[in-house]
Write a structure and sequence with these properties.
Helix content: 25-40%
Largest sheet: 5 strands, parallel
Shape: globular
Number of strands: 16
Radius of gyration: 23 Å
Strand order of the largest sheet: 3-2-1-4-16
Structural class: alpha/beta
Strand content: 15-25%
Number of helices: 18
Distance between the termini: 52 Å
Length: about 475
């Protein structure tokens, strides 16, 4: 197709549930592209000689090539091309912020809408799975080297996929009873169905990855004991699982959750599927979520689906400063979420039974930029008001899981408790120990964690070859 014809094709919109329907269920919101829509979208790709989109991808997918294969109708080959560099394409196609990475630098984006790279990635991975066309590539000959991966989030899963293909023996140790880390406990079903996560995990197991669940490194075994058990290298990918609170009066009242607990109860423990799963969760009628990131959006949209009459986002800055993905904010608005910008709570009030009933709040205004580059919120004196609530979800970020650093002598951490690791290799202060993902960066995105796993895999492979 000629260039002029390609430029005339508009970006293809992915079909999705209506807001009226989806707030009543936990099913995935977008339906995915049809083969016809996918091929039409793929034809928009200009097949640039210098593919800057690849530079924007933390896991270095050959984006023009997999899109070319979709345009030609060879969907299975497109999926195989994706899996050369990314063991989690169905996940990344759903939850990665492509608008800030590969799509942001797409050549087409200079004058038009960028190619929908994420939607096409999801399409190819879904087609392969749904058609039963998943192929298990032949790995390299066994090297005799053993690698332990602590944590089965996106960093650990990506690392496992890369190292197993290189012939190393790989074991993942996961503290929870399900594999996937934040992918299973943090991201709701309506954004990332857990069957999708399980299918990606199944693929890794078919490649030969061993997974041990309900195995808490730092309690059952230490990092030092992993080496004594014969592992030649250890990767720590335990994430940022320690919730942050505001430390204001009344924060210990019933009905006040960390986003971690709220989402874990609903997602991993399936509280949303009562009575099939009898996990308790407080389904309030007036629910406020504190924060402006993706976790806050996941929490407030979950509250709606659990039956809230009013679901609020309270954020101390303006909409412009919100770090959540634009798609997530848009979906929340469509679903009826109410936003209180430039507002912060300063105190919770409760009843005689210890349940939260209201919160005292302050209005804010934006001052000069702080260390994050965003304008710092400044309280407006005398702007206090009281808001009635019966459930509060605190989604203001997480700190790194402290268990492994506290039980590993010689492992250096920074003042926030994050493991200090080389950003290009993942190497830590301990010989033979690497780290990556949120345990290093603090709370970030799935794809950045996956990218850290990929970088560490390359360096671990070099290290093992020289042993």
């Amino acid at each position: 197709m000629e260039m002029k014809e390609r430029l005339k094709i508009p970006r293809q919109k992915m079909p999705e549930q209506t807001p009226q329907d989806r707030v009543k269920n936990f099913k995935e919101v977008p339906f995915g592209l049809t083969p016809e829509l996918a091929q039409k979208e793929a034809l928009r790709c200009l097949q640039c000689k210098k593919a800057v989109c690849v530079d924007g991808c933390p896991v270095e997918i050959n984006i023009p090539e997999f899109i070319r294969l979709i345009a030609e109708g060879d969907f299975g080959a497109a999926a195989r091309e994706l899996k050369k560099n990314n063991s989690l394409p169905a996940i990344c196609g759903r939850v990665c912020p492509q608008e800030d990475q590969c799509e942001k630098v797409c050549t087409l984006a200079k004058k038009f809408d960028p190619v929908a790279i994420g939607n096409l990635e999801r399409f190819a991975a879904d087609w392969e799975r749904e058609q039963g066309k998943v192929e298990i590539p032949e790995g390299a000959p066994p090297t005799g080297k053993k690698v332990a991966i602590v944590g089965s989030g996106p960093a650990g899963l990506t690392l496992a996929g890369d190292l197993i293909k290189l012939g190393h023996q790989v074991t993942i140790f996961e503290a929870l009873h399900k594999t996937g880390g934040v992918l299973v406990y943090g991201i709701p079903e309506f954004r990332l169905p857990k069957t999708i996560v399980q299918s990606e995990v199944d693929y890794l197991e078919k490649l030969g990855v061993e997974i041990k669940t309900s195995f808490v490194i730092g309690m059952l075994w230490s990092i030092d004991e992993l080496f004594k058990e014969g592992y030649h290298a250890v990767f720590i990918g335990t994430g940022a699982g320690l919730p942050n609170f505001m430390r204001i009066p009344g924060e210990n009242l019933n009905g006040i959750y960390s986003a971690n607990e709220y989402l874990t109860r609903s997602n991993l423990m399936k509280a949303y599927d009562f009575p099939n799963y009898d996990t308790p969760i407080h389904s309030g009628k007036n629910v406020v979520v504190l924060g402006g990131g993706n976790t806050a959006m996941d929490s407030v949209r979950t509250a709606l689906r659990l039956g809230a009459d009013n679901a609020y986002i309270m954020y101390r800055r303006s909409r412009k400063e919100m770090p959540a993905r634009l798609d997530e904010i848009h979906h929340a608005e469509q679903e009826g979420v109410q936003f209180h910008f430039l507002t912060t709570p300063i105190k919770y009030n409760g009843d005689n039974n210890g349940w939260v009933t209201s919160m005292e709040c302050l209005k804010m205004e934006l001052g000069e930029p702080d260390a994050s580059g965003r304008r710092r919120p400044v309280p407006i004196e005398g702007s206090n008001f009281v808001m009635e609530v019966d459930t509060v979800v605190v989604a203001i970020g997480n700190s790194s899981n402290p268990l492994v650093p506290q039980t590993t002598p010689g492992l250096e951490v920074n003042k926030w408790g994050n493991i200090i690791a080389d950003p290009e290799t993942g190497r830590t202060s301990r010989e033979g120990v690497w780290a990556g993902g949120d345990i290093v960066t603090g709370g970030a995105t799935v794809i950045l964690a996956a990218g850290a796993g990929k970088k560490a895999a390359k360096d671990i492979h070099r290290y093992l070859q020289n042993l």
